UniProtKB/TrEMBL annotation:
It comes from the Bacteria. SUPFAM superfamilies: Bet v1-like. The lineage of its organism: Bacteria, Pseudomonadati, Bacteroidota, Cytophagia, Cytophagales. This is Ligand-binding SRPBCC domain-containing protein.
Amino acid sequence: MKLTLSTSVAAPLARVWRGFDATLFQKLSPPFPPVRLLRFDGSQRGDVVSLELNFLFFKQRWISEITEQAEVPDEIYFVDQGTRLPFFLTYWRHKHRLIRHGQGTLIRDEIEYRTPLRVLDYLLYPLLYAQFAYRKPIYKKVFDPEG
């Protein structure tokens, strides 16, 4: 299943790229499930991000590795690939694209995921959409001058 969301911000590409750090990552975490950042190496190839998701009655570990990272004149991107996922996911690939957009930047989240059951892919879609839509005002607050 694929999911794509885009957010336009006023900050230039280089500034947005510098802002993709552990502090931003923690701001982007939605209220539920609460996320504890266990490890954040960065957004370069080979870096690892490790999280603990707290679902109240149980916790799940999520580990992703940055498998790709590239910079071209009008775009910077990196891909995190799930290596250890919560029980409800069997595959996770998230491409974070930062695209020059006039004087600002378009932040595009391109997610591909799978669950153990195709019907669960569809049931999870609105939840994941909401989780990533939650990021839009945070991106604006962090990267827009008036934010």
